[in-house]
Fold this sequence. Notes:
Blueprint: E1 4-8, E2 28-32, H1 35-48, E3 60-63, E4 66-71, E5 77-79, E6 88-89, H2 93-106, H3 121-132
Antiparallel strand pairs: 1-2, 1-3, 3-4, 4-5, 5-6
Amino acid sequence: MNLYRVRLCSVGNIDFGQNPERPYSPLKWATSFSLAGCSRACLDYISKYELGGGNWNGGQIFKGGVQIARVSYNGRIWEGEGFGNGEEIKFNDEDDVLRFFDGLRQMQVDPQAAENPILSGDQLDRVLTKVYSGRVKK
C-alpha cells in the first residue's frame, strides 16, 4: 500500500504587493493513499485560502521521504520536482478511490488490537457495493 505526503503552502504574490519571501497561508501536510487524493488536498487548500496561481508554492508529493511529483495550481500532477521538468502523471479517479478504500480495509483503530478493524472486510464490501453498484472486487 502506497502512502503519499503532500506539502501545502503558499507565498505572497508580488503582483498584488505581497511579499514573495513570506508565507501567505499556513504550511500544512496531507497524506493520501492515492495521487488523486494528493491533487484533491491541494485544490481544497487552494480554495480554502483563496490562493491565486502566483501564491501557490506547494504540491510537492513525497513517497518514503523522497519527492516523486508535484501538483500544479490546476491540480495536474507532474513527475519529479518541477512543472516543466517531467511528464504529466495521469490518474484515474475511480481506481484511486477504490485503492483508498482497500487501504482503509487494512487500517486499524488501535494498532495493538488487530482484531478490531474500522470495518471488517465483509462490512466494507457491503458499503462499497452500495456506493459503487457492484464494482467492488472481493
